[in-house]
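Backbones bend. Our protein:
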Amino acid sequence: MASRSSHPALSHADGVANSWADFLQLVGRVLIAILFLTAGWGKFGNPAGTLAYFTNLKIPSPQIWVSVIPAVEIVIGIALVLGLATRYAAAICFLFVLVATAIAHRYWEYPAAQQTAQYVNFTKNLAIMGGVLYVFVFGAGAFSLDAKLAKKRR
Protein backbone atom coordinates (compact mmCIF):
# COMPACT_ATOMS: atom_id res chain seq x y z
CA MET A 1 0.00 0.00 0.00
CA ALA A 2 2.41 2.62 -1.16
CA SER A 3 1.36 6.22 -0.99
CA ARG A 4 2.69 9.22 -2.79
CA SER A 5 4.18 12.28 -1.21
CA SER A 6 2.31 15.54 -1.16
CA HIS A 7 5.08 17.23 -3.14
CA PRO A 8 7.60 15.93 -5.72
CA ALA A 9 10.50 17.25 -3.65
CA LEU A 10 9.49 14.81 -0.93
CA SER A 11 9.28 11.77 -3.21
CA HIS A 12 12.76 10.38 -2.43
CA ALA A 13 11.43 8.99 0.84
CA ASP A 14 8.71 7.18 -1.14
CA GLY A 15 11.33 5.31 -3.15
CA VAL A 16 13.29 4.37 -0.03
CA ALA A 17 10.14 3.21 1.76
CA ASN A 18 9.00 1.14 -1.22
CA SER A 19 12.45 -0.40 -1.77
CA TRP A 20 12.94 -1.33 1.87
CA ALA A 21 9.31 -2.03 2.85
CA ASP A 22 9.62 -5.76 3.56
CA PHE A 23 12.82 -5.39 5.54
CA LEU A 24 11.48 -2.40 7.49
CA GLN A 25 8.28 -4.29 8.31
CA LEU A 26 10.46 -7.03 9.80
CA VAL A 27 12.52 -4.50 11.77
CA GLY A 28 9.37 -2.80 13.05
CA ARG A 29 7.87 -6.10 14.18
CA VAL A 30 11.08 -7.11 15.93
CA LEU A 31 11.42 -3.76 17.70
CA ILE A 32 7.88 -4.01 19.05
CA ALA A 33 8.42 -7.67 19.95
CA ILE A 34 11.54 -6.91 22.00
CA LEU A 35 9.41 -4.95 24.45
CA PHE A 36 7.01 -7.86 24.97
CA LEU A 37 9.68 -10.56 25.10
CA THR A 38 11.75 -8.72 27.69
CA ALA A 39 8.71 -7.72 29.77
CA GLY A 40 7.32 -11.26 29.76
CA TRP A 41 10.67 -12.84 30.51
CA GLY A 42 11.27 -10.36 33.33
CA LYS A 43 7.94 -11.20 34.93
CA PHE A 44 8.60 -14.95 34.69
CA GLY A 45 12.02 -14.38 36.25
CA ASN A 46 10.61 -12.48 39.22
CA PRO A 47 7.26 -14.02 40.16
CA ALA A 48 7.30 -12.58 43.69
CA GLY A 49 7.91 -9.07 42.38
CA THR A 50 5.29 -9.53 39.69
CA LEU A 51 2.76 -10.74 42.27
CA ALA A 52 3.52 -7.73 44.48
CA TYR A 53 3.15 -5.37 41.51
CA PHE A 54 -0.16 -6.92 40.40
CA THR A 55 -1.43 -6.88 43.99
CA ASN A 56 -0.51 -3.21 44.30
CA LEU A 57 -2.43 -2.49 41.10
CA LYS A 58 -5.45 -4.22 42.68
CA ILE A 59 -5.75 -6.72 39.84
CA PRO A 60 -8.33 -9.37 40.82
CA SER A 61 -6.77 -12.79 41.53
CA PRO A 62 -3.20 -11.58 40.92
CA GLN A 63 -1.71 -15.01 41.59
CA ILE A 64 -3.43 -16.33 38.44
CA TRP A 65 -2.19 -13.46 36.28
CA VAL A 66 1.45 -13.91 37.38
CA SER A 67 1.74 -16.76 34.87
CA VAL A 68 -0.86 -15.72 32.30
CA ILE A 69 0.31 -12.17 31.57
CA PRO A 70 3.99 -13.04 30.98
CA ALA A 71 2.94 -15.97 28.76
CA VAL A 72 0.72 -13.68 26.68
CA GLU A 73 3.57 -11.15 26.35
CA ILE A 74 5.99 -13.84 25.21
CA VAL A 75 3.53 -15.35 22.72
CA ILE A 76 2.84 -11.90 21.27
CA GLY A 77 6.57 -11.25 20.98
CA ILE A 78 7.33 -14.58 19.30
CA ALA A 79 4.42 -14.20 16.87
CA LEU A 80 5.59 -10.71 15.89
CA VAL A 81 9.23 -11.78 15.40
CA LEU A 82 8.25 -14.78 13.29
CA GLY A 83 5.45 -12.97 11.48
CA LEU A 84 3.06 -15.80 12.33
CA ALA A 85 -0.65 -15.03 12.63
CA THR A 86 0.62 -11.48 12.62
CA ARG A 87 -2.66 -9.63 12.33
CA TYR A 88 -4.12 -11.66 15.19
CA ALA A 89 -1.01 -11.02 17.26
CA ALA A 90 -1.29 -7.30 16.50
CA ALA A 91 -4.97 -7.22 17.47
CA ILE A 92 -4.30 -9.11 20.71
CA CYS A 93 -1.34 -6.84 21.37
CA PHE A 94 -3.49 -3.75 20.89
CA LEU A 95 -6.11 -5.01 23.34
CA PHE A 96 -3.45 -6.18 25.81
CA VAL A 97 -1.73 -2.78 25.84
CA LEU A 98 -5.06 -0.97 26.05
CA VAL A 99 -6.03 -2.93 29.16
CA ALA A 100 -2.54 -2.67 30.67
CA THR A 101 -2.58 1.09 30.15
CA ALA A 102 -6.00 1.42 31.75
CA ILE A 103 -4.90 -0.62 34.76
CA ALA A 104 -1.30 0.42 35.33
CA HIS A 105 -0.73 3.87 33.84
CA ARG A 106 -3.53 6.10 35.11
CA TYR A 107 -0.97 8.82 35.68
CA TRP A 108 -3.53 11.24 37.10
CA GLU A 109 -3.99 8.93 40.11
CA TYR A 110 -0.30 8.84 41.05
CA PRO A 111 1.44 11.18 43.48
CA ALA A 112 2.81 14.32 41.80
CA ALA A 113 6.39 13.01 41.94
CA GLN A 114 5.41 9.94 39.88
CA GLN A 115 3.00 11.53 37.42
CA THR A 116 5.58 12.46 34.80
CA ALA A 117 7.01 8.93 34.63
CA GLN A 118 3.54 7.42 34.46
CA TYR A 119 2.49 9.92 31.79
CA VAL A 120 5.50 8.87 29.72
CA ASN A 121 4.48 5.22 30.12
CA PHE A 122 0.90 6.12 29.21
CA THR A 123 1.94 7.92 26.00
CA LYS A 124 4.51 5.21 25.18
CA ASN A 125 1.69 2.70 25.30
CA LEU A 126 -0.38 4.88 22.97
CA ALA A 127 2.56 4.79 20.54
CA ILE A 128 2.80 1.00 20.84
CA MET A 129 -0.91 0.73 20.08
CA GLY A 130 -0.37 2.95 17.02
CA GLY A 131 2.51 0.75 15.89
CA VAL A 132 0.56 -2.48 16.21
CA LEU A 133 -2.34 -0.92 14.33
CA TYR A 134 0.09 -0.41 11.44
CA VAL A 135 1.14 -4.05 11.73
CA PHE A 136 -2.52 -5.07 11.76
CA VAL A 137 -3.30 -3.03 8.62
CA PHE A 138 -0.16 -3.75 6.58
CA GLY A 139 0.55 -7.29 7.80
CA ALA A 140 3.88 -8.95 8.35
CA GLY A 141 5.48 -8.37 4.97
CA ALA A 142 7.50 -10.78 2.84
CA PHE A 143 9.94 -11.73 5.59
CA SER A 144 7.45 -13.68 7.66
CA LEU A 145 6.00 -17.12 8.18
CA ASP A 146 2.65 -15.69 7.14
CA ALA A 147 4.08 -14.93 3.68
CA LYS A 148 5.73 -18.35 3.43
CA LEU A 149 2.52 -20.13 4.43
CA ALA A 150 0.47 -18.05 1.98
CA LYS A 151 2.80 -19.12 -0.87
CA LYS A 152 2.36 -22.79 0.02
CA ARG A 153 -1.44 -22.51 -0.19
CA ARG A 154 -1.29 -21.22 -3.76
In short: The chain has a mean pLDDT of 94. The chain is about 80% helix and 0% strand. Residues 24-153 form one domain. The two ends are 22 Å apart (CA to CA).
